[in-house]
Structures are given as C-alpha cells and as structure tokens.
Amino acid sequence: MATFTIDLLTGNLFLFSGDFTSSGSTPTTGSTYPQVNLYSDLPTPASAYSGQIYVVRTSSGSYVLNRKEAGMYLSVSNTWRRLGDIPSFFKSDNFQVYDSVDTSKGMMFITSGVTAGQFRKLKVQNSDGTIAYLTDLNTKLDKTTFSDYTGTTAPNTYYNKSQINSYTGSTLLLIQGKQDTLVAGQGISILGNVISVTGNTSGVSNTALQLLDTSGNTDVNLITAPSIVWTSQAFSGTSLSFTGGSRIYVRVNGTYGISYLLNVYNDSNSGKNIGTIIRKNGTTDITPLSSASIGLNFVNDSSTNVMPENLVTLVNGDYLELKAFRIGNSGSVFTVPNGSWIKIQKKII
C-alpha cells in the first residue's frame, strides 16, 4: 500500500509506493506542489510535464529583459506559464524601456504625483513627433529678441470659433480695390475705409480726403457751370499719386460729410455774383444753392463761397463735383490760386 512521508524541514509531502525501501515522488496536484529555487530549475522539456504545477521560490533575471518572478508555474504545451498576480516588473519603479542598441540607457515612468485611486491616460495623437517639456520652452525661445520691446502687451484674452460664429453686430466694409495712382482727367477715388479702431465706436476715425486748387484762374462767371479742377492732395490718410481732376469717386456705400471753400477775384469794375453747388454724377444737385458771394465794383475785388459740412448718402460708383456759375452780371471772375479746397469724409452712422 502507499505510504506518505512529510519532510519536516521543507514541509514537502512525499508519496511512496509499497514500503519505505522503494523510491518516492512529490505530488503535482492538490494542496502541495513540487518546488524549485529558480525558474531555470524547472524540469525540461515542459511538454513532458503538461498540466502539472510547480512552485518557483526565488525571482531571477533583470526587469523587462528576462525577469522570471517567483510564484506558481503551469506546464502548457511546451512552456512554463506563470500563474497569479501581475509580475512586479510592471511597477512604476521597475518598469523600464531600454534603448535597442545601448541597453545602458532608457526611460522610466514616475507615477507618485498621481491622485490616489486614479489612473491617468496619455493620449498619443495621430502623427509623428517629439515630446517636449515645459522646461524646454526657455531654451527653444530666444527671450533676448524681445528685451528692447517697450510697447504695451495685449491682454491674453482669446475667443473660440463658436463665439465668432455667433457675432451679430455690424461689420465695417474696409478697403475695396484701392486706386493708388490717379490719371489726369479721370477723377479722384476716395475709398471710405476705416483708418483705425481703438476698441469701441467712440474711438473710431475715418478716412478724409481734402484737395486743393493750386493753379486757380478758372473763369466761373458763366451760365453753364464749370467744374472746379483740383490739382493737389492736401490729405487722404494715405499718400496718393494725384495728378488732377474734378471728380471725387465714392467706392463704398454710406453717409459722407462734404465741405468746401471757393475763393474768386473780379478783374473788372462792376459787381459780380457767383453761386456754387455740389453736383452728383454730372446731373443731380445734392445740396441747395449752397453758397453765393458778391464781388463789388472794385478792380481785383475778391469774394469767398463757403459751405460747412453737409451730410449726404452716396453709393459705390457715385462721383461728386463742385460747380460754380454766374448769378449776376456778365464779365470774368477767376478762381484764386491756392485759395480753394474741398473735403469729403465717410461717416460711421
């Protein structure tokens, strides 16, 4: 009959067939399993022990590279498979990734700063690249580039796309096809674009165009009203290569303020009366008889027509001209060189 013997030093159970003179063996099932010191001590080939369980008492090998943890191993097919908990080489202070060429270098993960009970996730984006640290920014950006900057830094206020999409205010129409070079006789273009916006409508300034008649000597005491020809730019907010013309073209729909001053002199000894008006597109007078002046019967007597700013509504393509004409007696009346100007300014209403 079978005889059981317990090794009092190790606690191993041995089963003997027959009497004590026969050889014994250690059971591979039940509550006690055969033990070996290291994984390398497990019997080979594993396939000869299929389904049997052995206990490895001591861990061996380097973490990740060839680590074999202590524990229970089951023979499956032709290998020994460990049973039980996760091997310790997955602990943050053990887990390492080695360089494939030089195994003396690699990287580790530090998880001590993670809140208890939390497993943080590192998401890898769908592109190749190099991970950069916050501490790298000081070396990647040459801060001395900005050392001499003395201006005001804008506040770090940002808007996302949805905020912009929901904007319902009025957007100002800016520059359209700006005409930088003007050709004599073909008119003058004013674009009505916004020069600057300083944060709100109370700080808005508009483009203003002011032109001079530096040549003068145009006879304006005629029944058919001649147009005043402008020869020089006084101001436009931008520099135009202006070569002359009588027409001021509007390129943006809106409300415009117009004002002018016309100086004339009388070369005869009889009084002369001169009227002026702003005409649109060559046919429509858009102001009343805006100004009139009388030169008395003195040789070289002079008079001045003045119109304060008058608001009118204009659309893209309209052009304006200052017309002067005879009201009283016939005879020549000439414009004074450098004595007349006109101004037009787009308004934000």
Description of the structure:
- By secondary structure, the protein is mostly beta strands.
- The chain has three domains: 32 residues, no CATH class; 62 residues, no CATH class; 160 residues, Jelly Rolls, CATH 2.60.120.40.
- 3% of the residues lie in helices and 34% in strands.
- It has two helices and 23 strands.
- Strands 10, 15, 17, 18, 19 and 21 form a six-stranded mixed β-sheet that branches. Strands 13, 14, 16, 20, 22 and 23 form a six-stranded antiparallel β-sheet that branches.
- A hairpin with a 7-residue loop joins strand 2 and strand 3.
- The longest helix has 5 residues.
- It is rod-shaped.
Question: Fraction of residues in helices?
Answer: under 10%
Could you list the spans in which at least 5 consecutive residues all have pLDDT below 50? 172-186, 191-205
The total number of structural domains is: 3
Order of helices and strands: EEEEEEEEEHHEEEEEEEEEEEEEE
CATH class assignment of the largest domain = Mainly Beta
- Main sheet characteristics: 6 strands, mixed
Strand content: 25-35%
Number of strands: 23
Distance between the termini: 115 Å
CATH T-level topology of the largest domain? Jelly Rolls
Number of helices: 2
CATH architecture assignment of the largest domain: Sandwich
Radius of gyration: 50 Å
Structural class category: mainly beta
Instruction: Report the principal-axis shape.
Output: rod-shaped
Overall pLDDT, averaged?
75
